Amino acid sequence: MWLSRAQLATLLFALTAASFGILALTLLGITRGRRRLALYAVLALGVATLLAAPLLFDAATRPRVETALGVSLPLVAAAFLAILARGGRGTRAFLFAAFSVLVLSGSAELAARRQVLLVTPAVTPLGVGFVLFTALLLPRVAEQERRLFTRATTDPLTGLANKVTFERMLELEIARAMRQETQLGVLLFDVDGFAEINDKGGARAGDEVLRHVAATLAGQVRLVDTVARFGPDEFALIAPGGAGQIAGRRVRDALAGTESVTGPISISVGAAVYPIDGATSEELLDAAGRALAEAKRRGRGSIFVASGS
Hints:
Blueprint: H1 5-31, H2 35-52, H3 62-82, H4 89-113, H5 123-153, H6 163-180, E1 184-191, H7 194-220, E2 226-229, E3 234-240, H8 244-255, E4 259-260, E5 263-264, E6 267-274, H9 281-298, E7 303-305
Parallel strand pairs: 6-7
Antiparallel strand pairs: 1-3, 1-6, 2-3, 4-5
Helix pairs in contact: 1-2, 1-5, 2-3, 2-4, 4-5, 7-8
């Protein structure tokens, strides 16, 4: 069955809306922007479905299909508006405007199908406006979402994951180790004599040491490992497969020969292994903390494994 010129225009607009919905989903995967981009993608794809689906049915069935699809749009809009208050000012402005353009475009198109003459001329400019608006502003919103995500999940001084992210990843890695019946290493690193470094060289010297240790950690771990800043002068490492003790030695050896204002930089390391030293994140972190305390007691640059006690 051949489509009329009006139906072809409608289908083109629906495909455009769908393409931007897919783009939003793609950006969602890249930036992990979570809810706001996800809702925009759902809304864009919903409008695409609302416009295109009736073209697949005969004239007698189309009104019922349009009614069913139209009922779903307010539900999406309600979820969309409920979360609109979250996020930055630019994100809220973009989402509100994009929502308005999408709804107006879809409403104008449906009105044009019903031959409401006053609305018909508005369909084309609204469609073009939607395309231009999305093409120009969606990348900016995606970048803002990426920055917000980075700020919430990383330590600003070292660029490593922060404590909240580390604890979340530890839960996920424990679940994976449980499914695969493998070991999992959890390490805590403490910079030896950090208080003395701060006292003698000031906060700037302390920050330089922390950045140096963080860079060394990041350079010595595997891609599958997770390294984070865990406290003021503490770092943490998740090592799938239980290879954490080896990573601890590599980091300690890599720091050998580097200097701070008080002398050589060194770290003490406490390690715990799943499931030997604990079956939950709390148990593993407690065991690693006790191991770290024992390593500090034994002297600078010591490594102690909880299961070795």
